[in-house]
């Protein structure tokens, strides 16, 4: 059984408003799996979006070729990564929104999600070396994370066409490029 089928099942249930009703036993029956197979992916439903984020990252990072990294400047590559990530998640927007709304008052969920998103950005930025000190690298990671989170919020709650979210990401990348020399410190591996 593929990870995608498990992810699709959970997202479909979230989309139709059944997130709170999903039990591992239901997934076992529906997908003909053992509970351990499902728990290998995530031990608790609260970790689902963290796992989904990693799954999407593999798809997005796989879509950015080594050739793209060689031929384009870092700001374009990072912008493409952020835009592609939202694009890949687009078909599951309602399910994602319902999951987030379900955990709205749960601080543990937000910490898990923030950590996951931060790790996501760090993994992609590891495609580059950073020529300057570690503090500047961490500041750059945080700036990219803020741009992504602002775009994600717009994408999730306010934007049916993705244009507004894409505009925020585009404007944020350009502002970092003009206001700092963070991109100059990136070295293609």
Describe the structure.
This protein has helices spanning 3-15, 24-31, 35-41, 48-63, 66-71, 74-89, 93-102, 107-125, 134-158, 163-179, and strands spanning 128-130, 186-188. The chain is mainly α and 189 residues long. It has a single domain (3-188), classed as Tetracycline Repressor, domain 2 (Orthogonal Bundle), CATH 1.10.357.10. Strands 1-2 form a two-stranded antiparallel sheet. The longest helix has 25 residues, at 134-158. The protein is elongated, with a radius of gyration of 18 Å.
Which secondary-structure class do the elements indicate? mainly alpha
CATH architecture grouping: Orthogonal Bundle
- Characterize the biggest β-sheet: 2 strands, antiparallel
Order of helices and strands: HHHHHHHHEHHE
What is the CATH C level class, in words? Mainly Alpha
First-residue to last-residue Cα separation: 35 Å
Number of domains: 1
Mean pLDDT across the residues is: 88
Count of DSSP helices? 10
The stretches of 5 or more residues where confidence is low (pLDDT under 50) are none
Shape: elongated
Query: Based on DSSP secondary structure assignment, what is the total number of beta strands?
Result: 2
